[in-house]
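Subject: complex prediction, re-run

Hi both,

The earlier run crashed halfway through, so I resubmitted it with identical inputs.
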Amino acid sequence: MSALTACVSVPAQYQPSIDNAELLLKIDRRLSVGEFTAAPGVENHMLSARGVGIEAGAGGYAAFLREAVISELRKSGSCDPVSPLQLSGALTRNRLNSGYARGAASVGADLTLRRGEEVIYRNSIVQDHEWDSSFAGVVATSAALDNYGATVQKLLGKLFSDPAFDAALAAASQAH
Amino acid sequence: MRFAPTRVGRTAVALALSALLGGCISVKSFVDPALPVLARSDLPTVNAPKPVTVLFEFKTNGNANARGTSALQGRVVAAVAESGMFGAVSSTAGQPATGLLKININDVGDASKAAAKGLGTGLTFGLAGSLVTDNYVCTASYALNGRSVETTVSHALHSTVGNHRPPPGAKPMATMDAINQVVDQLVWHALKQLDEQHAFADQA
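This time it finished cleanly. Structure:
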């Protein structure tokens, strides 16, 4: 089956969201981005929709999630590669289903914020997302591709809107 | 093999299915004539234009569409810059004393119906042509110094695939030209409406 799904593939793409940019503008802190890995047993290299592979690129979906974080931070002017406040993570769930009527994705991550060596925030976040799919493969695949990115967008929205995340950043800035 | 759809919206779906089945089938695009066409000279003059950050998102039925955003981001920012209503135009936030212009274009409709039409056109090698419409709803808001104003503009792009009568009152265009015109007009109408709601009044 994997041989078949590897025949045709589309690259996964991510777009930073306006809502997330607004959340980060309110937080108004600059962050660096550390390592993102995939937890054991979590699919990191091949998701597919109707036999079409969704390519995550080098480093797999964990790297895709890392790039998503970076693009969100860049969009809001919050990315600083030398900031002592560093966000890292582990992909803990990664599922995609493209049915004839409904599509669904579930993405989870353990996200950790450090100031230097000190962990100042840690949270496990799971985002489920569903959408209208189609009998037509080209429509279903296109929708799955778009909505996988939307699922990651929502996952990061949960992080950026978490009051504990905001509080940890505020406390870190005061301590600094 | 890599599948990389470049067109945005339901037209792409109908075209893909009809082309797959029917080989070379002609496509013509038409900008909906209901929304008046604004020229640059129709836009308001803003005294002492402020710098602005443009945050743009393209969505399909309310969900993020990264390919659409990537394809249209440059055009949206260029349309804002060409309006002459702002100083420096950036697509990255973070500069102080900068207005924030959020532009969301949502492509609303039923892609499955478009696919069914494309299938029919392809099976008849273009004889049973189809008309596919992409409806766009643009929501734009401008915020500066804690004050925010929002407006909405609707527009549409029609495409005929194979042998089908054009929509009344619309002229055929190349698909990319039609998409660019729709984007430019959505942005300019939104800016004009924001100005009519005094969004830029404090800039003088």
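The beta strands of chain A are 8-11, 32-38, 47-49, 52-55, 85-98, 102-115, 118-132.

- K.
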